[in-house]
Design brief:
Elements lengths: L17 E2 L5 E2 L29 E6 L4 H11 L3 E7 L5 H6 L2 E5 L4 H10 L4 E5 L4 H5 L4 H4 L4 H10 L6 H14 L3 E2 L14 E2 L7 H19 L5 E5 L2 E5 L5 H12 L5 E4 L13 E2 L1 H9 L4 E5 L4 E2 L2 H11 L2 E5 L7
Length: 335
């Protein structure tokens, strides 16, 4: 709240009365007082434990390598694995680890539930990239992805007033649960790909990079807790970019354009009590290539909260390009 704003009545820190233009003692309201801070999404419920093998588990797959990695982890744990490819985004590797893969439209949640139940799925993991900016902010989204009745009801009952990622994913998880499919912790079968503490590459952060991380980590925590995005970019103790709906890769490009080839640091993490049933933050080889092209040589990620896709290969590429990857603890210290 700025110094020119009046607090709304009933706010826990609001004065009971204020001074109106006429000088009388009345509740103080201004034209800007309706711009109240949007509350953070409530803490999600803990994901259920996976059933004992050999249960049939589903992978609800977006884009990228992550769905195949999760499917492989499920298979190694002794489960029968089937896949659901959203708009056909799941890559070919997913097919190799699933007995059956079915394609479903993005905005047909009823079709998701029916397909999963017909394959014998009561527990699933939802992973992979779906371009929120493309699908959520396209004015023709309803025509390009005609929703079914179940999706339309979720949209108008749950998402009219808050379409940030936590609200969206909670509504999605609840809808699947109502249909008999529980979403699991999406990191459960890929724990060896989570961020470790400290430097994971041959090159550790320089003293200057560590200083940038310690300065910007509290800023990142605020951005995360406000459900704005998962990343910030910092240079010389100044925040040059904040991720929002465009995603990390586009934010990296924007930060690089602003810094014009000068070194900067990317920080990425997850909000407190993050819902691990979906949208767990990730980095991978594409992230490292984009960082290098944009002039950054250091990425700081939250220990245990960020997935490193194909971790050994991503670290090897970072070593080749001279990019430091460092895991940061809750205290903001980079090891």
């Amino acid at each position: 709240m700025t110094r020119t704003e009046a607090r709304t009545p009933g706010h826990p820190h609001a004065p009971e009365t204020g001074v109106t233009a006429a000088g009388t003692s009345e509740p103080a309201l201004t034209a800007r007082s309706s711009r109240t801070r949007q509350p953070a999404a409530p803490n999600p419920p803990a994901p259920p434990a996976p059933p004992a093998p050999p249960a049939t588990l589903g992978v609800i797959a977006g884009e990228g390598r992550l769905p195949a990695m999760v499917a492989r982890g499920m298979h190694r744990a002794g489960h029968r694995v089937v896949g659901l490819s959203i708009n056909g985004l799941g890559d070919e590797a997913l097919q190799r680890h699933c007995e059956d893969v079915r394609r479903v439209p993005l905005l047909r949640l009823g079709a998701w539930v029916r397909a999963l139940r017909r394959m014998g799925v009561t527990h699933a993991v939802m992973v992979g990239r779906v371009d929120k900016a493309q699908h959520m902010h396209d004015p023709l989204r309803m025509l390009r992805n005609m929703p079914d009745v179940r999706t339309a009801l979720v949209w108008y009952r749950r998402l009219r007033h808050d379409r940030r990622s936590p609200a969206l994913l909670a509504a999605l998880a609840d809808t699947l649960a109502d249909g008999g499919v529980q979403l699991l912790d999406s990191t459960h079968f890929i724990e060896d790909h989570m961020a470790d503490h400290g430097a994971m590459t041959r090159r550790a952060p320089t003293p200057e990079e560590r200083s940038e991380i310690e300065f910007a980590w509290p800023v990142l925590r605020d951005v995360l807790d406000l459900d704005i995005g998962q990343s910030v970019a910092v240079r010389e103790r100044d925040v040059v970019a904040v991720e929002a709906a465009e995603g990390t890769d586009r934010m990296i490009e924007r930060a690089g354009a602003l810094c014009k080839g000068r070194r900067w640091v990317l920080l990425k993490g997850a909000r407190r009590n993050h819902d691990r049933r979906a949208d767990v933050p990730t980095i991978g080889q594409e992230t490292i290539r984009n960082l290098h092209a944009a002039g950054s040589r250091c990425v700081a990620i939250a220990t245990g909260d960020v997935i490193i896709v194909d971790k050994p290969d991503t670290i090897a590429l970072a070593d080749e390009l001279g990019v430091a990857i460092v895991g940061v603890g809750a205290d903001g210290k980079a090891g």
